[in-house]
Amino acid sequence: MTLDLHRFLPYRIDRLSDAVSRHFSDVYRDAHAMARPEWKVFAHLGQEESLTAREIVRRTGLHKTKVSRAVASLEKRRWIARSRDDDDRRIEHLSLTKLGSSHYDRLTDRMREREVGLLEQLSDGEREAVDDALAILERVMKPDR
Fold first, then answer.
1. What percent of the chain lies above the pLDDT cut of 90?
2. 37: closest CA among 78, 79, 67?
3. How many CB atoms lie within 10 A of CB 97?
């Protein structure tokens, strides 16, 4: 049996993931001089009050070295801050600063605008079908584990 690469699901998802990433990357890259790992860390911190680097590694799938570099870069910009855990001083919690929150709000507004532009190209039924298919694949693949 021959593998039809253009119908092979992992290949199609990988290509689509790259295309979507490129479509959105100029928003964080050009306007905020952020690399993809920085964006991923920043986005996750914008969703939560605070996270540890270990939690970010688990949620993003990034290697701990990439998370560490992204954290250092964001910290240098004063967009995130570290705080020690009250119960375990070895643990550091990361959170957005006031300046970071301001940049996060502007950046996510632009990302949402870009998403709307993309989704407007689909019918209501197509948007629903894409959302359903992604939910099914996420359930089956369990990416957060």
1. 88
2. 67
3. 16
Residues with Cβ < 8 Å from 26, sequence gap 6 or more? Answer: none
In this structure, what CATH number is given to the domain that contains residue 64?
Answer: 1.10.10.10
What residues make up the domain containing 136?
5-141
Burial 31-61 (b: 16+ CB within 10 A, else e): ebebebbbbbbbbbbbeeebbebeebbebbe
Q: Which residues contact 63 (CB under 8 A, 6 or more apart)?
A: 57
Per-residue model confidence as pLDDT tens digits over 49-106 = 999 999 999 999 999 999 999 999 999 999 999 999 888 888 999 999 999 999 999 9
In which residue are the tokens 């990439």 written?
Answer: 66
Domain count, the chain: 1
